[in-house]
Amino acid sequence: MTTILGIDPGLDGALVVIAHGRVVEQCCTRDLCPDGYVPEQMDGLVGQWCADHGVTVAVLERVASRPGQGVASMFRMGYGVGLWRGILAGRVPHVIEPTPQSWQRVILRDIPGEGKARSIARAAQLPGLDLTPGRRRKAHDGLADAACLALYGAAL
Question: Is the pTM of this model over 0.85?
């Protein structure tokens, strides 16, 4: 079975590895890089997970600017996505970059509700996933999206 890494690339995003139908690794981007993107830490974590679990597919969400989003935040997002692309290119043989609409159409098709609540509800069904790691009280939607992205990679 394929081991898949799902990445929600924002600073409030996350990484999730799914193997044999369960989450075997997870990390929130802010926990990994609390002061902003740090390439060495990002590459170190992905390298470790690839070595430990044999990740063969990565699913990195394709992001785009939204109306009203600031120039600085869009630049930061683009920088982060570029870092993830470079790290994955050197470590993972197959990288998929779906738009949010395309992975949500497949993974959330039977999940009722709206917005982030749908990805949280779907991700909560995955064994091994902790949507409230550390001292969080509310489900982390970045973890939910990263888990759903990994599920999308498994569904292809």
Answer: yes
